[in-house]
Amino acid sequence: MDVSEAVAIRKSVRAFLDDPVSDEILAELLTKASRAPSGGNVQPWKIYVVNGESLTNLRAHLAASPPVEEPGYEIYPPKLWDPYRTNRYELGEAMYATIGVGRDDTAGRMEQFARNGDFFGAPAAFFCYIDKKMGKPQWSDLGMFLQTFMLLAEEAGLQTCPQEYWTVRQNAVGEFVGAPEEELLFCGMAIGKADPDAPINTLESKRQPLEEFCTFV
Ligand SMILES: Cc1cc2nc3c(=O)[nH]c(=O)nc-3n(C[C@H](O)[C@H](O)[C@H](O)COP(=O)(O)O)c2cc1C
After folding, report:
1. What is the distance between the alpha carbons of residues 88 and 83, in angstroms, rounded to a whole number?
2. How far apart are CA 129 and CA 43, in angstroms?
3. CA-to-CA distance for 26 and 19, rounded, in angstroms?
4. Fewer Cβ in 10 A, N or C end of the chain?
5. What are the pLDDT tens digits along the chain (217 aa)?
6. Nearest CA to ligand 1 atom 29
7. Which domains does the chain carry?
8. Residue 62: its pLDDT value, please?
9. How far is the CA of 163 from the centre of ligand 1 (A)?
């Protein structure tokens, strides 16, 4: 698989098969992903893997924790504006359409949102943290690391879903993984083999055309 193919086939998967993922493959992918660039090579990512028994224990811990907490950061700016607002809206509509959840089906939407808290059934996952004192440039470094990981996972026959959702479970997760007070949870990463029969995995997110986001000066 070349890089173009990995970029083209990677997509966020929201239903996984039970097939286990070994700690060895996760360690290998995370080691390779750490070749991601970061400003000044500070490498600000802090990763906590939950797999097998620890993921089972995390699920039990979450079941006994508040379903929604104050987020650790603002996921989107307030009152998102166009074209970003429309991009987000269209993604949501397309996603709910795959599972037959209508615009007014608040319960159905809440149910799908809550599936984030089960990593969409993934057999493996990690949480990505950053030191609270780090700034915007270091947050962007996390993205480099995460996308590198996701592409490498595709090469290894695994699919993923990055999840900012976890910021609304930040205290429950922090207690479980033992993250120190100075670290902030950015996102989770669901990892496993995509369920090929799950309607939600038919979702193909759109992209703006080049001329919408790029200016050749
Ligand atoms: C940092 C980050 C956090 C995300 N958080 C969530 C999430 O909490 N739940 C979810 O279902 N998708 C989440 N996504 C997936 C996005 O919705 C998805 O990347 C986007 O719609 C583009 O689709 P694609 O990944 O299939 O190409 C997240 C993506 C990123 C990059």
Report:
1. 9
2. 12
3. 14
4. C
5. 999 999 999 999 999 999 999 999 999 999 999 999 999 999 999 999 999 999 999 999 999 999 999 999 999 999 999 999 999 999 999 999 999 999 899 999 999 999 999 999 999 999 999 999 999 999 999 999 999 999 999 999 999 999 999 999 999 999 999 999 999 999 999 999 999 999 999 999 999 999 999 999 9
6. 162
7. 3-75+119-202 (3.40.109.10)
8. 98
9. 6
Q: Is 45 exposed, middle or buried (0-12, 13-18, 19+ CB in 10 A)?
A: buried
Nearest ligand 1 atom to alpha carbon 203: 26
Cα 139 to chain centroid distance, Å, stands at 14
Identify the residues whose C-beta falls under 6 Å from ligand 1: 11-12, 14, 91, 116, 161-165, 187, 205
Q: Which letter, b or e, does each residue of 52-64 get, where b requires 16 or more Cβ atoms within 10 Å of its Cβ?
A: eebbeebeebbee
Q: Is 120 left (phi over 0), alpha (psi -120 to 50) or beta?
A: left
